Every structure is written in structure tokens, then in C-alpha cells.
User: Fold these one by one.
Assistant:
Number 1:
Amino acid sequence: WTWERDTENFYSAFVEQLFLEPGDEDPTWSNLQELLREPSRNLLFDHRHLDEDTSLDLEPDCADLPYFLRAYFAWKVRLPFAWRQCRRGRDGRPPACEETPADQTTPIEANSELEAFRRVMRVIARNVHSSSNRTVPQDEHSDVYPVPLTRDALRPGTIYADPYGHILVLAG
């Protein structure tokens, strides 16, 4: 598989279903794994037939969340996934990322496919931070890109970098 219109649409449907709630509720969850363990929410529940969703423990912070969602989805449906090591910005210097991304093809010693995925997620958690999603719009070496503020462009899975520091993922 490759990331194309159909897989992007599937990813959007996955994110939307995962966070779907009745319109009059304002739910909160303690962690991502709480949602992934619910077969009614998770369109990819046990998709790999490894009993993976009951044994994973994914608890991303706000900066990790977009990466965790995308990596989880990519792993489940065997899509490529990559991320860049980025440096934080400073006064007069915006955040910037390395030219060459890291990806899931880097060999990892593990006893199982599930353990290899866990280790990749730990690497992502150690290397991703809020500046990873705050590069300047023209930066070609970034994991994100600007999207127009239109109903068509703002789909479930779209990342929003709040000016006060949080990273949000549009869910519906």
C-alpha cells in the first residue's frame, strides 16, 4: 500500500470513528490506549491478529499524538511511516527538521513484530516534541504542511499547532 487519496480517506475515517461521541457530550480519556482497546471505536482493532490492541500501551502527549495515530494506522495496514528529528526554535530562529527522515525500516532487534512496533513507538516518543509540528510553512524538511482553513481541507487527522504550545488533532 501507499499513501494516496483512498488511504488518506481511510485514515480520516479511522480518526473520526476513534473519537466519535454524541454531539451533546464533552468526553475526556486518560490515554490513547483506552480508545484503541474499544472494538466499537477502533476500525483496526486486532487487525494484525496479534492481540495487539489489548497488549499495547500507547500514552502520547499532545506533541506525540499525531505521530502515534499515524504510526499506529500505518503499522496496522502496512503503509510506510517516517518522521524527522527536529530542533526547537529560539528567539530569531524557527524550529527546523533534519533533511533525511527516520522511518520504520530501520532494523530493530525484537522477539516479535509487536515488540518491534513498541520499540519504534518509544523512539518516536523520545524524538518528537511540540516544535516538530511548528516549522515555518515554507520548510520542505518538515513532517507537516499548511492547509487552507476550509471545510474541505480540514479533515479528521489534520494537525493544528495552537499558538500557546499545544498540538491538536482534528477529530470530526
Number 2:
Amino acid sequence: IADRLEKRGIGTVHAQEDYATEVPDYNWNFSYKYSRITIKAAMAANQEMTELIDIHRDSQRHGKTTAVIHGESYAQVYFILGHANKDWKKNEAFANSIHQVLEKSYPGLSRGIWGKSSGNGNNGEYNQTLSPNSVLIEVGGIDNSAEELKRTADVLADAIAEVYWNS
């Protein structure tokens, strides 16, 4: 996604820290606390950074994370919003703009937008308080093939670029 955005003229910072192997006595419950430090450092070094996109993979199986569109199999995307963020509606507008672009050309590629509150193992904020243009996007699931993920990554990057350039 970062490479495709770069080709579309959008600068990116692609953080790839592996906190689970880098942090002694890593605690999964603090994953977003660790990544928040990385995001804030990137934002400080890149004052013009306004969009934050956190890419994940869904834990659902292939049947729930795959769509066939125009005869090709794609890993579906699912937009996750943290409702523990008091300004979540701004993030929802950002996610919805990407969702709408996808639906126009690739109906069914997006599984929609899901707002999650904190509790029951959910963070509920996902560092989305750091920008009104922030979203967590699950791309495919644990069974999607590299080809399905690549097809979706290209389409998703193009949709993000369209939203970016139109704003």
C-alpha cells in the first residue's frame, strides 16, 4: 500500500516495528501504547502528516474475508473505528469516504465500518485520537492468498489516494 501511494505522489511513513520481539516482557494488552510512541515520533518528524492508516488482518476465515469481483478474488477490507475516541465521527467520515470510493468501482470489497468500544479485549481507541483522518483497516483474513491481498492492496491504495487528492 505504501509503495502504491508513493507512486501516486503521496508521501508515506511505513512503520514496521515488531514490538512483540523487540520489547522485553512484551504485553499484548499494551500494543497500542507501544505503537503510539512510534506514531507520535513519526508525526513530529513529518509535520505535514495528516492521515493515519493502521493495517491489520482479520482473524476470520476465508469465507468471511473474501469477495469475487469482476471475476477476480479479493481480500475484503473492514474499517474499524474506536468509539472510545470522543471525536470518532471525524474518523468515521474519513473511513466512509474511502469505503464509498471502493464501493463505486468494487462493490462488496468493503465489509463496511464497525465501531468498537473499549472492553472485552478491545482497545476502543486504536490511537485514532491522534488525527481526525485515522482508521484501522483490516485487509483480508488469515487464509487470504498473497494474490488476493495484493489485488486488494492496490485497489485500497488507489481509493486512499483518490480521497487524499480530492480533499
Number 3:
Amino acid sequence: MKLGIVTYMVAAEWDLDTIIEKCTKTGYEGVELRTTHKHGVEPSLSKEERMAVRKKFENSPVKLVGLGTACEYHSPDRGELKKNIEETKAFVLLAKDTGAEGVKVRPNAFPEGVSKEKTIEQIGLSLRQVSAFAADYGVKVRLEVHGAGTCHPPYI
């Protein structure tokens, strides 16, 4: 087993150099960088900035295991669903460029007025779509067990 961290809460206020330095000093071998945190590894990065992130990890003993997104596929709003799918694809391209193995996504709830079965099917079809896209770039899509109701493993 290898130890790593997710920057959510633990390292939300650390920049990338601090994350790598502290993981190296404490023996953590990997990190999942959560979106919206101080390290700033986001789809808005330029090609040069993405390469700089990649080089920082390549020149350290710490592996960029993944990018933790807040992309979710349970919303019955078609526009919201499409936005989350497209955002996931942007994170997949960021992962490819920065050397991250994968992108984490999540369900977040069973929407009121929509059957659990329909929501689960929608989540599954969305995962199929983003996973097929990610496979073309050698990036894994990881599903976090998360959210009100959807956090129960039998639904996942």
C-alpha cells in the first residue's frame, strides 16, 4: 500500500511547491489535487503552465495521481448535465497534459421528483460518455462514492 493525500481540506491552502515539499518530507507518495484550491491546477492553465506542473511532479518523488473535480451527473437539468460532462472532458485534457493518471467525479444526490433508477441510469450513461473520451487520452475516470443517498455503495 502507498500513502497519498487529497488536497481537499488537508492542503487546500498550499501552493503546488508546498504540497510537493510536504509530501516528500512526510513520505506521502501521491496526491490528488482538488479543483478550486490554492495550487491552481485548473483547466484554464495554458499549455506552458500545464507543462510546468508536469515537470514539478516529474522532478519529485511525488506522483500526481489525479485531479479531484466537483463534476457530477445527477441533475435532471439537461444544460447542467451537459456543462458537467464538458467540464469533465476539460479536466481529462488537463490530466493528460499534467501527467495525472485520472480524474475524480461524483454523484451528489438523488434529485427530488426523479426516480432513483432514472438518476442511476443517467449517471451511468454520463460515466460511459466521459470514460470513452478519457480512454482516448489514457486517463482514468474515478467515481467517488458521495452525496445524499448516492453515497451508498449499492447504488454505485
